[in-house]
Amino acid sequence: MPVLSLIDRLRPVAALLVAASLAGAPVAVLAQQQNEQQKRQTQPQQKPPVKPRTTTPPKAATAPAVPKTETLPPSQIGIGTHAKQAFMVDPQTSTVLLFKDADKPMHPSSMAKMMTIYIVFEELAAGRLKLDTRFRVSERARNMGGSRMFVELGSEVSVEDLIRGMIVLSGNDACVVVAEGLSATEEAFAERMTAKGRELGMTATVFKNSSGWPAKGQWTTARDLAVLSWRTIEDFPKLYRYYAETSWSYNNIRQENRNRLLKTTPGTDGLKTGHTEESGYGQSTAAIRDGRRLVLVVNGLGSMAERAQEAARLMEWGYREFTNTTVFRAGDTVVEAPVWLGTQDKVPLVVSRAVQITAPAGQAVAPRVVARFDGPISAPIAKGTKIGTAAVTLPDNRVIEYPLEAGADVPRMGVFGRMAGMIRHYLFGWLS
Questions:
Q1: Which of 98, 132, 231, 368 could join 78 in a cystine, given CB atoms 3.0 to 4.6 angstroms apart?
Q2: Contact of 83 with 100, CB cutoff 8 Å
Q3: 138 CA to centre of own chain
Q4: Distance between CA 249 and CA 233 in Å, rounded?
Q5: Which ranges in the chain are annotated with CATH 3.40.710.10?
Q6: Cβ–Cβ contacts within 10 Å for residue 316, how many?
Q7: Which whole-number Å values give the CA distances from 377 to 34, 351, 386, 402, in the listed order?
Q8: Contact 181/160 with Cβ under 8 angstroms?
Q9: Mean pLDDT of the chain
């Protein structure tokens, strides 16, 4: 599923075609006002998104520690990798840069903890939990094996400590404390995790526990974990900071974050590693450089060292071989729409966030932008009101839609002005 959701398509009554080149050429604008009969016609269906084209593998790295990409097992999209499953996406443009069996079921291992953490973040954001809320440690939590926070039986642990325990220490015991604190039983909490995953678009994921401990019937995919990673970053920007912490001490025991890229790969600020005997070593990684975000999920690697090396190599490749170009900045006017019975004849329609496209580095492409809105727009119009959409056709023919908002307030005309406007309309038709 796309990482960025598309807003519902509006029935167009006015259309604007905008052609913009990546080299920064001026935007060419062609506008056409449809008549009343055309208003009733149905908008033709857009072409369905297609997979991004495969990029040419880069030249082999000179460092002897990095294997030549020509010798690596191939991917369906992007360069080869030793990972059994791999998925890299630029979530700001929904461009998939790397795809290797990313929809093949795999065990989530400790990467499942990201969903437990997501639900905790959601409870905090809703005000149903506070960072100083405390949960009691049960015998089941205290007896969890694997990576641990080392909570003590019968003690009460704050939510903030449990967050760090799950993220930095990868504590299985911390996950059980949270699950029982929020849902009474871990089984009930796992059902909540699965339901939340469906809500986020993780259609191939089933959770059986809160920590990713091996369990029959527990599955996910690399693509689904990328969706969860991006939604965590996007939905909880203030809480996401915990994922960047490199070490932490609890109960007089200091442990290092297993995400080595936090210290070795510039821009890395999350997310979570994982390992089981059956699925190997995996990791969900997020980094941001110069405002550009990449999310990478790998799994099925042979060791902690190989996981760190391969994740770093792939992340560097993503930043080196692809670039983003801004078509419109946040607040830029895409088109001016006609106004009916307003103190102004037109209102600017703007994008609330930047419109960007991802393409191979050095490749010049010309994206096509189509703005659609119901027009003329009746006054009064409040600034920020959603008016229509801007559909951007990317170089691989995928279409991403961005909401268009009114860029200014337009009050309604007075009584006499409205009368004059209506007379002009009925006698002469709409003049644009």
A1: 98
A2: yes
A3: 35
A4: 25
A5: 107-278
A6: 16
A7: 13, 17, 11, 19
A8: no
A9: 84
Looking at domain 107-278, which CATH architecture does it have?
Answer: 3-Layer(aba) Sandwich (3.40)
Rounded Cα distance, 325 and 359, in Å: 8
Spelled out in words, what is the top-level CATH class assigned to the domain 14-51+338-407? mainly beta
Tokens of 154: 């019968």
* Token digits of residue 28: 């060419």
Give tens-digit pLDDT for 19-71: 333 333 333 333 333 333 343 333 333 333 333 333 344 444 333 344 455 57
253: exposed, middle or buried (C-beta count within 10 Å: 0-12, 13-18, 19+)?
Answer: exposed
> Token pair 């008016």 is at which residue?
387
Q: How far is CA 70 from CA 58, 81, 149, 296, 361, in A?
A: 9, 10, 42, 21, 20
Query: How far is it, in rounded angstroms, from Cα 335 to Cα 387?
Result: 11
DSSP per-residue string spanning 299-329: EEESSHHHHHHHHHHHHHHHHHHEEEEEEE-
Q: How many CA atoms lie within 13 A of 37 on its CB side?
A: 0
Helix axes 113-125, 159-167, angle to 10 degrees: 150
Residue limits of CATH 2.60.410 in the chain = 14-51+338-407
Smallest CA-to-CA distance from 313 within 67, 54, 90, 55 is with 67
The residue among 411 and 16 whose pLDDT is bigger is: 411
pTM: 0.78
